[in-house]
Amino acid sequence: MNIVILGAAESGVGAALLAQAKGHAVFVSDRGAILASYKEKLMQAGIEFEENQHTLARVLAADEVVKSPGIPEKAPVIQALREQQTPIISEIEFAGRYTKAKCICITGTNGKTTTTLLTYHLLKEAGLKVGLGGNVGRSFAEQVIADEHDYYVLEISSFQLDDTHEFRPWIAVLLNITPDHLDRYNYSLSEYAHAKLRIARKQDSSGYFIYNADDENITRHFQAALRPVMKMPFGMERRADLHLAGYYKAATQLCVDLLPGYYSETETINTAQSPLIGEHNRQNVLAAVLAARTAGVGIAQIEGALATFRNADHRLQAVGEVAGVEYINDSKATNVEAAWYALEGIKTPIVWIAGGTDKGNDYSSLLDLAGQKVRALVCLGVDNAKLRTAFEGVVPHLEETQSMADAVRRAGALAQPGDVVLLSPCCASFDLFKNYEDRGRQFAAAVQELRPSESA
C-alpha cells in the first residue's frame, strides 16, 4: 500500500517507521521545517520525505494518509484529499491495527496528561508490561513496531479522535468536556463533545467506559454515541440516582465498585499519600484508580504507587519556597477552567500571576474564588486590559508587568509567609513566551533567582 504521512513530528515519524516496518511504501510530507532529530530518524530508515511544502501530486497518489493531529480539516491539502475520497486516519488508528495489546485511552478537556501519567505509573509500579503514548511519551506507532507491551496507556486529544474509525480501546476514560478548541468544531460545543465521545463509539461488551457522571456535557451528549460497553461512571460523591463505579466517601477515602449496578462489593482505597493538589486532581486520581483496578492492579499496590507519583512539569508543580512563601508553577493552565481548578485547590492566601494571549476568555466564573482567596493579582502580558477590567475591585491589589522576572519579584514582595505565589495564567503564552513550557521554566528560574537575595 502507498501510505503518505502528513506531518513529521513524534506521531508522524513514528507512523512512518511503523508503515515501513509493515512493508508499505512510505512518503512523509511536512509543510514546515522538520526537526533535525526527526530528519535523522527518517534518513537512517531510508524513508523519503519533504519539508516546507506539500507536493500535491505525491500526496494525492496515496492509497491512505496518516495525518498529524495539528493539521486542521480546512487545510488545502486535506480538502484536496477529501475531494478525491482518500482515506485519512490518525496515528492512533494506524498503530491500533498492528497490536493485540490492551489500550487504556484517556481524553477530556482538562486533566488528560495527569490522568494518563498516573494510570501508567500505577500499572508500571505493579509490574505490568505497559507502554505510554499518544499525546505524551513516545509515539504509539513507533512502540508498536517491537510491540513488547501487554498494555498501552494513551493520552488522546479530540484532534486525534477525529481521524479514528475502527480503533477500539479496551478501557476508554472521559474526564470532562468544556469549551476549548471550538474553532476546529464550527464553534459548536455539541460537535466538540461528539469528537470526544468517539473514544467509546467502537467499544463493545468486552470494553469499559469510565466517565465523569458529574460533568453535564458528558451526560447530555454521551447516550447517542454509546455502544453496549461496561459503563463505569464516577463522581465526587455517592449518588442515589446512579450506581457509581467510583466516588469519595471522605477527602482521602475513595470507594471503588468494579461492577456498578450489580451490587458488588465496594472497596476502599486511601489516597492520602497522593501529592496532587486540588479538586480536579481528586477526579483525575479517581479515574486513574478505576482504570488500574480494572486492569487488575491491587489496592495495596495502588496506595503505594500514589505516594511515588510525580506529575508532568507545569501542572500545579511546586518549584520552591522562599521566605515562607511557596511558589507553584501551573503554566499549563491556558484556559479559565484550568485556572479555576488551581485557585480552588489551594487553601492558603494566593498572590496570583495571570495573563497572556486571551482566547476569548470569560473570567466571571473566577470572580468569587479570586475575591475569597487572592491577596494580589500580578498581570503578566502585553495587553492586560481585559484582566484588569475583570478583577479590579475584586482583588485588593492589582498591578501589571511584562517580564516573568519582574512578575515573580513583585509577587514575592506582595506575599506574606504562608502564602502561595501561583502562576496560573488562564491564557496562551505566545505574547511573551515560546510556549507554556518556556513560560513555566522562566517562572521556576525566576523563583531560584529570589533565593540569594533572601539569604543575603
TrEMBL record:
SUPFAM superfamilies per the UniProt record, alphabetical: MurCD N-terminal domain, MurD-like peptide ligases, catalytic domain, MurD-like peptide ligases, peptide-binding domain
Pfam family membership, one: Mur_ligase_C
Compartment(s) where it occurs, according to its Swiss-Prot or TrEMBL record: Cytoplasm
One GO molecular-function entry: UDP-N-acetylmuramoylalanine-D-glutamate ligase activity
Matching InterPro entries: Folylpolyglutamate_synth_CS, Mur-like_cat_sf, Mur_ligase_C, Mur_ligase_C_dom_sf, Mur_ligase_cen, MurD
Lineage top rank: taxon: Bacteria
Cellular component annotations (GO), alphabetically ordered: cytoplasm
Catalytic activity: UDP-N-acetyl-alpha-D-muramoyl-L-alanine + D-glutamate + ATP = UDP-N-acetyl-alpha-D-muramoyl-L-alanyl-D-glutamate + ADP + phosphate + H(+)
Domain Mur ligase central per the UniProt entry, residue ranges: 106-292
Pathway: Cell wall biogenesis; peptidoglycan biosynthesis
Keywords: ATP-binding, Cell cycle, Cell division, Cell shape, Cell wall biogenesis/degradation, Cytoplasm, Ligase, Nucleotide-binding, Peptidoglycan synthesis
Domain Mur ligase C-terminal, chain residue ranges per copy: 314-426
Residues involved in ATP binding: 108-114
Family assignment from sequence similarity: Belongs to the MurCDEF family.
NCBIfam families: murD
Protein's job: Cell wall formation. Catalyzes the addition of glutamate to the nucleotide precursor UDP-N-acetylmuramoyl-L-alanine (UMA).
Protein name: UDP-N-acetylmuramoylalanine--D-glutamate ligase
Source species: Hymenobacter nivis
